[in-house]
Amino acid sequence: MIMARRKRNVISIKEMLAFYLNSGVGNKQYYNYVCHIEDLCQKVNGHSVADWINHELSSNSTNPIGNLEQLIDTLLLSAPLSWTPKTKSNYKSGFKKFIHVILGFFNGNIWLNVGSYDKLFCDLIAANAIFASEDVVNDIKAGKLGTQSSIVAKNSNSAYNNPFASWDYMDHFRNNQLKKKKIKTVKDPTFPASYPGAKPYIVVDDNTCANQYIKKAIIESFERKYNTHFTGVSYTNFANYEACHVWDLPGDRRYYASIANLVLVPRDLAKLTDHNYRVKELLRYEVYRRFGFVPLNKTIPQPPKYYPTVWRII
User: Fold this and answer.
1) In Å, what is the CA distance from 259 to each residue of 46, 141, 209, 266, 303?
2) Do 67 and 61 touch, CB atoms closer than 8 A?
3) 3-class SS at 243?
4) In the chain, is it the N or the C terminus that has fewer CB atoms within a 10 Å radius of its CB?
């Protein structure tokens, strides 16, 4: 796909650097290299590195990286006299790595969002996603499993009501902005009227608790299936997996810790659950099929366009 040229930058150098630093392969040393290259570029011809990259991506060039390296060579001819050959080599090396990452992001996004790979993505998710078992979800609903506050609520309230299988009986919700401000709780005094035994406040969290709860529920599911205790098994065994909310809604305390609304997905595939419509459609149908789970005021999902024949079995 050819990106149409625009009069302004599609992405700024700072945005590009932010992508680079967050990619897992960047570091501050290369960040500084590229910042210096940007300064040189502006001083020599008044253009931004981002302009060059956007131009190469929008052209029919068969070797955009090579062309950009030639431009960097041209810039380095105007580098300060105090720069040694080693310094120039470092700047070029840093910029080259940076360009590889940026082009990788660009091509990766095109592949994910434009290509016709929805069936493949659904197959990958099905073969790798891990859900808790149905019996574990039912026991959480009944107050037999979960955090201590959930068990206490069940034992002290005959009207205990946990229809969404919330591991912590709806004690937490996700609000990253409040978390950054170090606000720990938010008042919610009317909530216990609908869910007897629930607390009249909610604890502010990022995704930490949901991540721990789904892993605990899945470990319990493993142990029940194989009728054994896995010595040494803990949520650190799922270090390369991410907890994903099937119906999103992490800001709603009813669904944030809902084990029926959570699935573990390998980190490399996790973004598909946020951004690919067919994957979201598939997972929403699957938690309905497995657990009968549908958030309030949401339509019961219909069988998805791509339904894999093979699912991971815990």
Assistant:
1) 55, 10, 12, 17, 21
2) yes
3) strand
4) N
Distance of CA 28 to the CA centre of its chain: 23
Cα dihedral across residues 15, 19, 25, 27: positive or negative:
positive
Would you say the pTM of this structure is higher than 0.90? no
Q: Which amino acid is at 291?
A: F
- Burial of residue 22, with CB atoms counted within 10 A of its CB: 0-12 exposed, 13-18 middle, 19 or more buried: exposed
Neighbours of 79 (CB within 10 A): 16
pLDDT digits (tens, 9 = 90+) for 57-74: 666 666 666 676 777 777
Residues 6+ apart with CB under 8 A from 7: none
Find the mean pLDDT for residues 287-296.
Answer: 97
Query: Please, are residues 246 and 284 in contact by the beta-carbon 8 Å criterion?
Result: yes
